[in-house]
Write a structure and sequence with these properties.
Layout lengths: L3 H8 L3 H4 L4 E9 L1 H5 L8 E7 L5 E4 L6 E6 L2 E6 L4 E6 L16 H17 L10 E8 L6 E7 L10 E6 L5 E8 L5 E13 L2 E11 L13 E10 L1
Antiparallel strand pairs: 1-2, 1-13, 2-3, 4-5, 5-6, 7-8, 8-9, 9-10, 10-11, 11-12, 12-13
């Protein structure tokens, strides 16, 4: 029997096709209450985001005012000039979030880490299901007004920097992602429900262009007020 993880990968274009590319770039517009809460309401409101597809890295440009960009990897985050000259860096950045809650403000380097970690995860899922050490198992279906969504619990190994070790993917009848749940460990384990919509096809890969993230309740429900994060993508390129 074909595993659910294989079905979802195939629904989004297939692993063979995905592995032809090394990076993904897109024009990014972001909003929501999180950025103001963390002290950076406009830094990443509009940027180009680029993520690696074979290694874990991400970059946002511009990064706030001036001709700056960010560079995230799990062990180091840097803010640099366009020519690559480092301006600031943070080594072992995840450790800097110790003791943080949802209300704790971030430095610019911490913002760069969070944004890089988040966008790398979002833009590589569901193909991360095929990465070494990533485990998954099917859960009970989730009822919705449009029919049941199948669910996949995903466990990430320690070597991958992402929101939380265990995350849950929700899939429609075609195998496309509709929702993504996680707990943001670096922000006091804040639970999120991440809604995924408006797919487009780029170079044979199906990619969502609209994402909305809300506070998740213990029973899995969520309210659309407040809107925690909005993400809109356009001009997506695979290379």
């Amino acid at each position: 029997m074909t595993q659910l993880k294989d079905l979802v990968i195939q629904a989004h274009g297939g692993l063979d096709r995905w592995q032809q590319f090394n990076q993904l770039s897109a024009d990014l517009v972001q909003g929501g209450a999180l950025w103001t809460l963390k002290g950076h309401p406009e830094t990443l409101a509009r940027a180009t985001v680029t993520v690696g597809l074979k290694e874990e890295w991400a970059s946002h440009a511009p990064f706030g005012a001036g001709d700056r960009r960010s560079r995230f990897t799990p062990g180091r985050v840097v803010i640099e000039n366009r020519d690559g000259t480092p301006l600031e860096e943070l080594v072992e950045p995840r450790a800097s979030f110790a003791g943080h809650t949802l209300q704790t403000p971030w430095t610019e380097l911490q913002l760069a880490y969070f944004a890089g970690c988040a966008m790398w995860t979002y833009l590589n899922i569901p193909f991360l299901l095929a990465w070494p050490g990533v485990e998954s198992e099917e859960l009970e279906p989730w009822p919705t007004q449009g029919g049941d969504w199948r669910r996949l619990a995903v466990r990430f190994p320690a070597g991958i920097a992402t929101h939380s070790t265990v995350q849950t993917l929700y899939l429609d009848g075609e195998g496309l992602l509709k929702r993504h749940d996680y707990d943001v460990e670096i922000s006091g384990n804040t639970p999120g429900a991440h809604l995924i919509e408006e797919y487009t096809e780029v170079s044979g890969i199906k990619l969502p262009t609209k994402r909305r993230i809300y506070a998740r309740q213990p029973d899995g429900s969520f309210s659309t007020d407040p809107l925690v994060v909005s993400i809109d993508l356009s001009n997506i390129r695979l290379s």
